[in-house]
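Need tokens for this chain, all 372 residues.
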Amino acid sequence: MGKKKSIAIAITGNIYTDQRIIRIANTLQENNFDVSVYYRPFLKYTNIHIENKTKTIAYPFEIVSVNSILNKGFLFYLLYNLILFCKLIFKKIDIFYAVDSDTLLAMTLLTKIKSKPLIYDAHEYFTEVPELIGKVFKKRIWNWITQWGVNSSLIRLTVSETLTKELSKKYNKTFDSIINVPILTSPLNNKIPIKKPIILYQGALNAGRELHLLISAMKRLPNFICLIVGEGDLSIELRNLVSEQEINNVSFLGLLSPNELSNMTNNAFIGFNLLESNSLSYYYSLSNKYFDYMHAGVPSLSSQLPEYEILNTELKCGLCIENTSDKIVESVNFLFNNKKEYQIMVENAIIASANHNWQKESQKLLTILNRI
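Here are the structure tokens for all 372 residues:
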């Protein structure tokens, strides 16, 4: 085995909440790479209990915190990239790995100065996220940064086949897809008996996730409970909505550790995965929660968007529905009242997980990185 190549991975999020990067970093560290992950130790929507957990996790790769006095806005991204650049400029790094466009400025500049290869990993269609809709000047800047980074990169990754095609077309550069799927484990048999079936949402509580529709639907699903795992920009608004409308079958669980979340998912009846289609980032998305539900043998409700329609047509482990409260209620009741169809979806999900897992995607990743 040859000498290990050092690779610096940069994210603007917290490593604790980024399971994709944890999986990637673990895989590379186990396969002759010396990995360091530069991250932001900032959790806006949490408490000290979760923050303490981040300090007790032992990763097989190095983690380096990038602390910023700012935590939002365009000035934050400029400052973060400046600090990131200063931390890495005197390091001996063989490969620079930028996660999303918000780390591209520093990582691209470093590759130019050091004449080292750059990997760009687009977890989403960054220049088409909902936050940039109508922001002409900001969008123009991010488009420029992204185009510069893409042109300078040796390898470009993203999270789905449809987004691979779209980004390859937009930037006139080849992208490869590495799907954000869990590690395949033995089937879980520790389901906890529950009085009411669980409708589970896991992920960010942000605009475009159709959580208002889910909460509205729960008023007409009194025989079910809804558990919402995660935090986000709508954390307070959604909690207030539940309180004001006196909905007693919706609970917010905040942030959970990966193990806690896995156990929670395993005991769900249905996974919720609706998205608005008004931003191209959501339109081309393929969320990790879809596969988390799949690996737990939990049928899911997804929007009628390209990736989910392709997968549900092929795998038949969930339903694609219109984004309305009526359709949510109708679909939940259908799955509950048709036990045979539901069980077929459960079995299809377990079968599908054998072909959609990190063991397979990690081999694709290593093959791609062998180009360097």
